[in-house]
Model the fold of this input.
Amino acid sequence: MPELRQNLATREWVIIASERARRPNVYAEAPERLLSGNRPTFDPGCPFCPGNEELDLEVSRHPAEGSWQARVVRNKYPALAEEGPVLRRNNGVVRTITGVGYHEIIVETPLHNTFLGLMDVPAVTIALQAFLDRGRQIAADPRMEQIVFFKNHGERAGASLAHAHSQVIGLPIVPGDVRHRIEEARRFFDDTGQCVFCTMLEYELAGRQRVIAENEKFVAFVLYASSSPFHIWIMPRDHRASFLNIDPADLPMFADIVRNVLHRLYTRLNDPDYNLVIRSTPVKEPENGYFHWYMAVVPRLSRTAGFELGSGVWINPTIPEDCAAFLRD
Ligand SMILES: [Zn+2]
Ligand SMILES: [Zn+2]
Done:
């Protein structure tokens, strides 16, 4: 019998299509492109490789002096403009805000043939420090309401450049998707007095069927109500609403688990295309009891279609517990 599962935090339903479930190993096909680790260390045509830097786009480099390990650069074709006031206009159906904000790229390594899952923990820590530093700077801009960190890895995930990088966008609004999650988390807190994410983490750690990796500070698990195969959340054990408020002393632990999870995907699923996002509370919401930041990793192994568009309900052709076991072993 197929099963509908509800995500406790978002209240979104998915269909776990167990009748036509595919075994996790069918997703281990190598992509048509070169595996990330098999590319050359340097590509003369790559704008992110050392020597090709477009210095006028550079925002910061880490370390600040000498040869860099990570860089933050402005997107050459930004979705938003840095200069200008936030002007709102409401007139009937016309509701607009000037498109001010930030759209930057975090180049995570000088090497063309590696990525967070193949780098060592100190190198991943430097990349994540760049996320954090830049996120805090953008958050200090009073026009900003939401900061979104994300990564497109591979073509099916939307990447146009192979060199390992993530992006950060600062928005003058709180997106509906974020507001929905905040409202559901608030509702759960109102009903139970507890953080829904802490509650989920407690269940995952009690059952351990879906946990794939953990350390002192973080736990990674395949989501009970995964909307797609190998849908993973990496969650801090400590309750904290904003990634920007992470204790910098915890960054190496965060780097450790991010590397661990992405390394598993790389070796077990042959470098799948995936998206990665950090979900965090809006910039101007104070630290609170109801929201809890986390990183979601979503491999792009199945395609969405009209049913998902028409219902918001996803059909997952794998059993989350099987996916977790496949990644764990
Ligand atoms: Zn490159
Ligand atoms: Zn929590």
In short: Residues 139 and 283 are 6 Å apart (CA to CA). The chain has one domain: 36-75+97-328. The radius of gyration is 20 Å.
